Amino acid sequence: MISTDSKIYVAGHRGMVGSAIVRQLQARGFTRIVTRTHAELNLVEQAAVRQFMAAEKPDAVVLAAARVGGIHANNTYPADFIYDNLMMQANVIEAAHANDCQHLLFLGSSCIYPKLAEQPMTEHALLTGTLESTNEPYAIAKIAGIKLCESYNRQHGRDYRSVMPTNLYGENDNFHPLNSHVIPAMMRRFHEAKQQSLPQVVVWGTGKPMREFLHVDDMATASIHVLLLDNATYQANTEPMLSHINVGTGVDCTIAELAHTMARVVGYTGELVFDATKPDGTPRKLMNVDRLKALGWQYSIGLEEGLARTYAWFLQHEEQLRQV
Asked: 16: annotated binding-site residue?
């Protein structure tokens, strides 16, 4: 069992999810939290990861490190997305096993599911259809991470678990105007439009696709909840070869609804224009979160509240973010 005395390595502690997980572990009394920056440990380098894991020998690992980005980034850097994520996952999971680390939590993504999966998407939808082409390399890497965990459990008796979050947002997000996900990209665009008194803001796509969004603090609490579950409870709500768990709200909205909510939160009063020449991506992505609810967790931060919290953080860090 994992206790507050356990040594936990959080890979990706500077990222949006990893930093939230570290904050919440500390709030729960965990004091032996191990972290490394990318400069200190490049997870793509197998020898470095092996050396690090042999020296630290953590009791548990949270694998939140990943190369991430929105549609533009995935389309522009497909080789980087598949290679870096495959290597990071393989290196960390194998090194954890080699050093007798029994507990590991792998963070994936809802993009693992087929583009036209039945909605809301259950865990059983995995590998039942064609992936969305714009982020297929990233999705394949994340699927491989799930299967790595399942395979080490099956062959070596490990307790390696996987959580698949819906679209995440919040503090420490990437607000790059091109390489970020929809919420931070939209938030920055609306904010700058308000500052410059622009008459309109252009939103990519038709506005019709439906998306589900989860605040990063909720994702962190869900991740820790799943990590700390006793084995009997966890096993009762998963399957040996279908061990990943969806994490989301179970509630979605159209991109147009998101844009209008964003305008209200930011205080932008101009016109919203939807550019239908830009890709929409998957028509709908809503997670079935029944399995997670059965395990005793559900979200607590609504979209407008979460956007307001994120915008407050954005304003506090605006000067720093403008340099990106």
From this structure: yes
142 a known binding residue? Answer: yes
Question: What is Dmax (Cα atoms) for the chain?
Answer: 60
For 207-252, the pLDDT digits (tens) are 999 999 999 999 999 999 999 999 999 998 888 888 899 999 999 9
Determine which helix (DSSP H) or strand (DSSP E) holds 218, and give its type and residue range.
helix 216-228
Which residues are known to be catalytic? 138
Is 18 annotated as belonging to a binding site?
Answer: yes
Beta strands in the chain, from DSSP E residues, in sequence order: 8-11, 33-34, 60-63, 103-107, 159-165, 167-169, 200-204, 210-211, 213-215, 244-247, 253-254, 271-275, 284-285
Q: Determine the Cα–Cα distance for residues 226 and 55; give it in Å rounded to an integer.
A: 27
Q: State how many domains the chain has.
A: 1
As to burial, measured by CB atoms within 10 angstroms (0-12 exposed, 13-18 middle, 19+ buried), residue 236 is exposed
145's tokens: 């991470």
Amino acid at 127: L
Measured distance CA(285)–CA(254) in Å, rounded: 10
With contact defined as beta carbons under 8 Å apart, do 104 and 163 qualify? no
At residue 285, the pLDDT reads 86
The tokens of 246 are what? 């969806």
Instruction: Let me know if residue 255 belongs to a domain.
Output: no
Range of the domain at 153: 8-172+213-250+285-301
